[in-house]
Design a protein that fits this description.
By secondary structure, the chain is of the alpha+beta class.
Length: 793
């Protein structure tokens, strides 16, 4: 005898195969979206740590910027596991990438890519350290330049005389030395040899290039200093003693950069996980409606078997079989699609740190989804069937709305009052409608859209304003290095300040200081005429030799704030200073703008004897072309003065990269709102059709029936706007403040005016469109049939 379940499944497949196929496809695509997002978030969140675990990362970068520095003495220090060095100032153009500002990192010894920062080889191989014509590149180089394994690029080197001259801060023009044809033999990745978001990529020659062309890279007299990377056996635990052994040398812990990247990746991964959650909620609403309708339809047919002895539980079990199997098949497809889509993950900053890009299967996420998705569909179908099968009615009293009562007292039109009642009062018994989910969905949708566009406005503002990253200046000039100026700086500074396009000049000296155990690059704030204003997040600039402004990361690591006292140590001694503000330093080729300290010229002279670097910051009038002004200033002051546009912080690309996900998340939440409101309208018309039938019998017209549904949709939308707009703006600003703190950048409360102007009319328009179908159905429902159903009920 064939089991009843098999017979019922055959009937379902014969009658509703198309509906089951649609259900399976919906589950497949929605499930794939959710699983891909959640697995991608987990993969991205762990990318940095997995890369560090296999690449022997550097503990610190050591930046003496000093000719003749004894690197062998550094190698002999206790706790040093490996050291590699590189020329501190190189500008080697690549013919195939003339506009990409790609400056090759040139290893000066064979420890590079071997005992320290040993990269993951994504494809190909590492270069032969004895070959001067081999190089490896990063993935972004391949994408941007179009040159990969097996291709050649031309690297142009300076002459030895140009290298000797360049260290004095002179503009020596383009390199005039040999043109070396480099063979690309591999694509690599480590935390040091990594791509910045939006960056052009990197080319890393073999150490053999430095061996063969040493004079071209450091000069005949080796004037170009070597900087280096150090890996300590104890990691960060041994950093304090290592720094103490190198007084006056700028030792930069790599942990600052690593932690910053972790924070950025964590924010991106949280956004991706939130996107996955929003996709899940949207799927629950949209697919849930289809499943509930399917279960209800099956229950209607199974009610005929109840009279023949079918129990409620047996009917529920039968109703679950077909949708459960469709969901299981859809889930299998979803898992396959999620594994395939994993090749696109992770994204953003995590993508550049992923040690094993390509297809990846996160079986914790995929396995959980494989179990939970069919179970959720089966539970929804079973609950719908259980409610639809004949059983004892348990009628709960309906909740009344004070607003609807007030509208009734005010004698507003019946259609308007009924529509408001449909929106705000769930009803009772089998006529209950999902009022709260619809209201919550509307609020969530408006909140998501406002939050997304508010956050996007913050990103757009930061992208337009380099000052948010501390760059209130448009040009930088270099006068000298290692305590030596090429020429007397004061006459040059006066000439720069006299230019009509220059609105501010700051004389800038840079030294390696220390506050307690923390190395702090110290900058002199010495205006020449009108200053280049400091960009502060709190407090005020220093005004005398007893005051200091700390950069955000340095202030956080020191636990210092405005009003605190700190002891700044330099080569002349230690001085107690009062923190008057927290603000951004200067982005350089070796240090980020988020760490460092500003002191006045008097305060600098008390603590430091000379300087590592000496230069100037130049602020230009609004609308001035920096390149044109730089060319004119070079001619004005003469002597080949090096004047250039500021270094672009890596955070500039990172912040633009996080703009996309909140917008997509907002779109999914808006979809969730549309689904929730649409479901509420359809359900209300179906379950409260009896109420409308009675009103039609009492004289309500078809147009008034449509007005009932339009009022219901409008009421839900208006309440969603009233709660969602302020909450969305607040959430968007909270998210932007969090992103500003992670970068860091100067926080300005973002606002999206056009979103505020358009969201209400667009939301009401969408509500009216959603009400069109249910309203037409309500107005054209067969009155006699509805009343007969009511009479039987």
């Amino acid at each position: 005898m064939i089991p009843v379940s098999v017979v019922w499944l055959r009937l379902e497949l014969g009658r509703r195969l198309r509906s089951l196929l649609v259900l399976g496809l919906l589950v497949a695509f929605a499930g794939a979206t959710v699983l891909t997002a959640l697995a991608g978030a987990r993969r991205g969140d762990s990318a940095v740590d997995r890369l560090l675990a296999v690449t022997l990362p550097a503990t610190a970068s050591v930046l003496p910027n000093r000719t003749g520095f004894d690197w062998d003495a550094v190698r002999r220090l206790p706790g040093v596991a490996a050291v590699t060095t590189f020329p501190s100032y190189t500008d080697l153009p690549i013919d195939e990438a003339p506009d990409d500002q790609i400056t090759p990192f040139v290893p000066a010894d064979t420890d590079a890519m071997a005992t320290i920062e040993r990269p993951v080889v994504l494809s190909g191989r590492l270069p032969d350290p004895s070959r001067a014509d081999e190089a490896v590149v990063t993935a972004e180089f391949v994408r941007n330049v179009g040159k990969g394994i097996g291709d050649q690029v031309t690297l142009r080197l300076p002459t030895p005389d140009q290298s000797d001259t360049s260290i004095g801060g002179r503009d020596t023009g383009g390199p005039e030395g040999p043109a070396v044809r480099m063979h690309i033999v591999g694509v690599i990745r480590s935390f040091w040899y990594t791509d910045e978001v939006g960056g052009p990529g990197k080319l890393i020659p073999s150490p053999g290039l430095f061996t063969r062309y040493r004079a071209n890279l450091v000069g005949y007299s080796a004037q170009v200093p070597l900087n280096g990377l150090v890996r300590l056996r104890g990691g960060d635990a041994g950093l304090a003693s290592f720094q103490a052994a190198l007084p006056g040398v700028d030792v930069v812990s790599r942990s600052e950069t690593i932690q910053h990247t972790r924070n950025v990746v964590a924010f991106e991964s949280a956004c991706l996980a939130a996107f996955g959650l929003a996709a899940f909620l949207a799927a629950v609403v949209l697919i849930g409606q289809a499943v509930i309708r399917y279960g209800a339809a099956g229950a209607t047919e199974l009610n005929a078997l109840v009279a023949l002895g079918l129990t409620r539980r047996q009917g529920t079990h039968l109703s679950v079989i077909a949708p459960g199997l469709a969901a299981l098949a859809g889930t299998v497809v979803a898992v396959v699609l999620a594994v395939t889509a994993s090749s696109w993950m992770p994204f953003g900053a995590a993508a550049a740190r992923e040690p094993d890009p390509g297809v990846d299967a996160d079986w914790l996420v995929l396995g959980s989804g494989f179990v939970l998705i069919p179970v959720l569909v089966a539970v929804a179908a079973g609950a719908s069937a259980w409610a639809g099968l004949t059983g004892p009615d348990r009628i709960r009293p309906g909740r009344r709305s004070a607003l609807v009562t007030a509208m009734t007292v005010l004698s507003l039109p019946v259609a308007v009052v009924v529509g408001a009642r449909f929106a705000l009062e769930p009803g009772r018994g089998r006529d209950r409608v999902p009022v709260r989910p619809a209201l919550l969905g509307a609020v969530t949708g408006v909140l998501g859209v406002l939050a997304a566009f508010t956050f996007s406005a913050g990103v757009a503002d930061a992208a337009r304003n380099p000052a948010r990253f501390g760059q209130n200046y448009q040009l930088m000039a270099v006068f000298g290095f290692d305590g030596r100026d090429v020429r007397p700086p004061r006459p040059v500074l006066s000439a720069l300040a006299a230019d009509p396009d220059v609105t501010g000049v700051t004389d800038l000296r840079v030294a390696a200081g220390r506050i307690g155990p923390l190395p702090v690059v110290t900058l002199s704030f010495d205006p020449v005429g009108d200053p280049v204003p400091l960009v502060l997040t709190e407090g005020r600039p220093p005004t005398n030799g007893e005051e200091v402004v700390l950069a955000p990361t340095s202030a956080r690591r020191l636990g210092a704030g405005v009003g605190d006292r700190v002891a700044l140590t330099g080569d002349l001694g230690t001085r107690e200073l009062t923190v008057t503000g927290v603000g951004f330093a200067v982005e350089t080729s070796t240090r980020g703008y988020e760490s460092g300290a500003w002191v006045t010229s008097d305060g600098y002279d008390v603590v430091f004897r000379g300087f590592k670097e000496h230069g100037s910051l130049l602020a230009l009038r609004e609308g001035a072309d920096p390149e044109a002004v730089a060319a004119r200033l070079r001619t004005t002051v003469g002597g080949g003065l090096l004047i250039f546009t500021p270094f672009v912080p890596r955070q500039f690309g990172e912040i633009r990269n996080v703009q996309v996900l909140p917008l997509v998340l907002g779109a999914f939440l808006a979809l969730l709102a549309v689904g929730a409101v649409g479901h509420a309208l359809i359900t209300a018309v179906r379950r409260r059709g009896h109420d409308l039938a009675v009103l039609r019998a009492l004289g309500m017209t078809r147009g008034q029936c449509r007005l009932v549904v339009v009022t219901q949709a409008s009421a839900i939308t208006v309440l969603g706007l009233l709660a969602g707009v302020p909450l969305g703006m607040a959430l968007g600003r909270i998210l932007w403040r969090a992103a500003a703190g992670i970068m860091p950048l100067q926080y300005q409360p973002p606002t999206s005016p056009w979103t505020l102007i358009l969201i209400a009319p667009l939301a009401l328009l969408i509500a009216a469109l959603l009400a069109t179908g249910p309203g037409r159905h309500a107005g054209h429902r067969n009155l006699g049939q509805a009343l007969r159903v009511l009479d039987r009920a």
